Amino acid sequence: MRIGNTEIRPAGGGLGCLLMILFSIVASIVLTVLLNLVL
Q1: Beta strand 2-3 with 6-7: parallel, antiparallel or unpaired?
Q2: pTM
């Protein structure tokens, strides 16, 4: 991915990028469930 003249490479290549996306999805679901349980 390129922003301006700096190139951003995800850690661990494509697999690391996929894992980070999956982790963020799972984390957001878990946080939503926890908030619903608390409130």
Answers
A1: antiparallel
A2: 0.58
pLDDT tens digits in sequence order for the chain, 39 residues long: 666 777 766 667 777 778 888 999 999 999 999 999 998
- Distances 6 to 30, 33, 38 between C-alpha atoms, Å: 34, 37, 42
And the tokens for 3? 């922003």
Interatomic CA distance for residues 10 and 29, integer angstroms: 23
Rounded to whole angstroms, how far apart are CA atoms 30 and 35?
9
- CB neighbour list of residue 11: distance below 8 Å, 6 or more residues apart: 20
22 vs 11: CA distance, rounded Å: 14
